[in-house]
Amino acid sequence: MSEPILRISDLSTRFFTKSGQVNAVESLSVSIDEGEIFGIVGESGSGKSVLARSIIGLIESPGQITGGKIEYRNAPLADEFRDAHPDAVNGDYVDLRSLPEEAVRSLRGPSFSMIFQDPESSFNPTLTVGEQIAEAVEVQRRASSNPRSTKARTSSSEYSLGSYAYGAVMPNRSFVSSKSKDRAIELLQQVGIPDPEERVDEYPHEYSGGMLQRAMIAQALAGEPDILIADEPTTALDVTIQAQVLNLLREIQDETGMTVLLITHNLGVIARMCDRVGVMYAGEVVERGTLSDIFDTPVHPYTKGLLGSIPDLDTTGGRLQPIDGNVPSLMDEEMGDRCYFADRCPKAMEQCLEEPDDASVDGGTDHEVKCVLAQTEYDESQALGDSHFGGGDT
Amino acid sequence: MAKVGIVLLVGVILVATFAPFLATQPPQEQNLEDSNIPPAGLTYSSEEIAFVDGERQTVTNTVQGSLDHPLGTNQLGQDIYSRTLYGARTSLAVGVLGTVIALLSGVTVGLIAGFYGGRVDDGLMRFADIMLAFPALVLAIALIGLLGPRTLEIPDPFVAAGLADGMPETFTLPLTVTLVVALVNWVWFARIARGEALTVREKNYVKASRSLGASNRRLMLKHVLPNSLTPIIVLATIQVAVIILLESSLSFLGFSGTNLSWGFDINQGRDLLATSWWISTVPGLAIVLAVIGINLVGDWLRDALDPDIGGERGGM
Q1: Any stretches that span the bilayer, and where are they (chain B) (predicted)?
Q2: Which tens digit of pLDDT belongs to each residue from B81-140?
Q3: Regarding predicted confidence, which is higher, A365 or A18?
Q4: Minimal Cβ distance to B213: which of A105, A116, A132
Q5: What are the structural domain ranges in chain B?
Q6: Which residue in the set A58, A126, A132 is minimally distant from B207, CB to CB?
Q7: Residues A60-84: what's their mean pLDDT?
Q8: In the prediction, which pLDDT does B316 show?
């Protein structure tokens, strides 16, 4: 197997709020291979979106990445920074956390881009859709015109302060060259917007939700990114549009061979789209493996629980089996060195009061589980009662 | 009400623009024989004690207003009507120019403070608070004392083109006053812009754009600023009126550097208020009408640009 394109190790992202420290992502490690669709699935509040934003470097105060590495494989980039930032470069890999902010910014667009959950609020209402896509094209054009120089990607005399100010005063003045606009039309066509020549000059409120989501995909594709992060791309859409958008993503991935990190809480979306899956719980990836590892031979009780709570058409009449309890609070003082799922786990044992390690199932494969059950059988004699968690109110 | 406001505002703008054509005589021209003439249609009589043929007599002087000086003359025999027209130029020029300078500097500071937040925000906004702690008029007078009353002579295009012979060839723009009123008022723009920037920078489209590699400058100017403009525009309208009042106060106190200003004229008639009341009243009314007009337009703009009201209650 080829080297992964993105290697995240021991990533911790914390939010320092007034009511305490929240460990949204806690020593998370995951590798993503080039050209695959990797799914991250988990409940609300499990840290999926924070993971996505950590990768792209958009964690804002009071949040902070407190530890770990986000290593991105890109040989030219590694060569560029090998001398200036030796600690950031490791072989062909570059650690995004050790790069200067300007360099990370230059990677957004051409290397990483992101599709957001809510297309309606992700477009600036005062600019045409075409202009906003073309904006992303310009970033990419500048990057490719001089790929070696970070400076060329980020500043250009074409876009002086004066022209910005002029554009702010004269709303009808188009910012973008006709070349970028043509590319925007092409991109709109690619994502299946009808009449792209007309639509390119329309404002976001003239688009429907599904079309805006397509336009957002077009915007994300403008930079021809190596890695596309899709954060709940279909949550705000109705079911038929969801299917269309997912098909579109799949087609584009087939065409371009880019890597997609798909974040969702919907197991159906995962089953339909992904090559490999990571299941997130309380800021950790508790189980990861190929699609069939997760769906056919899950090991972690949480994964089993998630799968058990999907309605099944074949066995009608029975009740759904939800996972008891809620996602634990991610406040620092309430988290200890133990398995965070233990208090909801039907198979919790006394060993679960210690933090489990990542363990490979059946040895050798990349189906890994953060659970003692990977190596031991459930032993009822060591089962934990509710009393261990201070009253059994869950 | 908005219609009234627009009529008043457009009226002031037209008057200021075409003052050389509307004026009946050059505003500075003195004619001491025609001093203190009342407005057309009014008569003014004064009794004075005089010695006629060695005898002490009470003589009654009666002065009749005429259309030669439709709004009367002042102590120096200058035509009040013409002076008021030219005063509109000063007020409007200082009001608009001062607002523009205040807007540009205030919005720049506010945008940077709101967008970057944290220490930048704290530093800039605490400085703004300190500026607010000074009374505007006192600060303005102190600054004028510091800078000196500089003026700029701007050639009048109509006179230069030979369309209005005899009228003053240049218009005196009180530079210091313009700068000072802007320095006193930029804080309001900074506060509004900061508040808006704080909200808008959290919007998804700002994050989306950032995730595509946009620079901070681009985010500020293309995404945050255009979406913060509405309250800034409304504030700018109201500030024109505030600055006109401040300019009038300053020129009333004699700090303006020009003697063609409503405030200056009010001051001239101050001592004669009991007798020649029109000298102060006419420029005073001009200020009132201009400020009311601008405020009405500002109110209407605020309602019209507020999506919650939908512009229907604006009265237009």
Answers
A1: 92-118, 130-151, 171-193, 224-246, 277-297
A2: 999 999 999 999 999 999 999 999 999 999 999 999 888 999 999 999 998 888 888 888
A3: A18
A4: A105
A5: 2-36+73-314, 38-72
A6: A58
A7: 85
A8: 43
A138 touches chain B (CB under 8 A): no
Question: Could you report the per-residue pLDDT of A199-227, keeping only the tens digit for each?
Answer: 988 999 999 888 898 899 998 888 888 89
The whole-angstrom distance between residue B115's C-alpha and the CA centroid of its chain comes to 32
Q: Where are the domains of chain A?
A: 122-224
- As to burial, measured by CB atoms within 10 angstroms (0-12 exposed, 13-18 middle, 19+ buried), residue A315 is exposed
DSSP character for B151? -
Which of A56, A60, A118, A122 is the best mutation test for B, with the most CBs of B within 10 A? A122
> Average pLDDT, stretch B63-75?
84
Other beta carbons within 10 angstroms of residue A16's beta carbon come to 13
Q: Which of A145, A151, A143 is nearest to A74 (CA)?
A: A143
If one compares B47 and A332, the residue with the highest pLDDT of the two is B47
Alpha-carbon Rg for chain B in angstroms: 24
pLDDT(A284) > 90: no
pLDDT at site A261: 93
The CATH fold of domain B2-36+73-314: MetI-like fold (1.10.3720)
CA torsion B88→B91→B93→B96, rounded to 10°?
-120
Residue A3's pLDDT is 81
CA distance A230 to chain B (A): 12
Under an 8 A CB cutoff, do B213 and A219 touch? no
Q: Which residues of A touch B117 (CB under 8 A)?
A: 61
Residue of A50, A59, A124, A227 to mutate, testing the B interface (most B Cβ within 10 Å of its Cβ):
A124
A304/chain B closest Cα distance in angstroms: 34
Q: Which residue of A has its CA nearest to B224?
A: A124
Q: DSSP E strands: which ranges in B65-197? A: 152-155, 170-173
Tell me the chain B residues in contact with residue A129 when contact means C-beta distances shorter than 8 Å: none
Which parts of chain B are beta strand (E)?
43-52, 55-64, 152-155, 170-173
- Number of Cα atoms under 13 Å in the Cβ half of residue B148: 3
H or E element: which one contains A15? strand A6-17
Whether A330 has a pLDDT exceeding 80, the answer reads no
